[in-house]
Amino acid sequence: MVVEVESTGIGDPIEYSKSKCQEELLVKLSVMIADILAACLTNLPQVIAIKCHTSSIEKREASVQAAAQLLSETMDIINTLQDRELPCLDTDELAYIDKWRTYLKDPFP
């Protein structure tokens, strides 16, 4: 990509090109990370329920505390990802990363 220095007012066209590529890469990487996190978070209700219900009574308090901590951390992540919308997948499909990948490659089958 070559940018005319006179029309942009930017000093070095090579530096501008590198900066632009780095910004685009960061945006793409951010989207990929957000999509993977969203796929992982769809299983969270099941994980929390299992964490709370499968331990013995003696260990239940620690399990519930761990589940509460997990929920708190997840809420922070969800608040960060609030602007992203979930894909049009069935509820059963949301738990599978392969379904997310397929959707992201072709959102309109």
TrEMBL record:
Superkingdom of this protein's organism: Eukaryota
Protein name: Uncharacterized protein
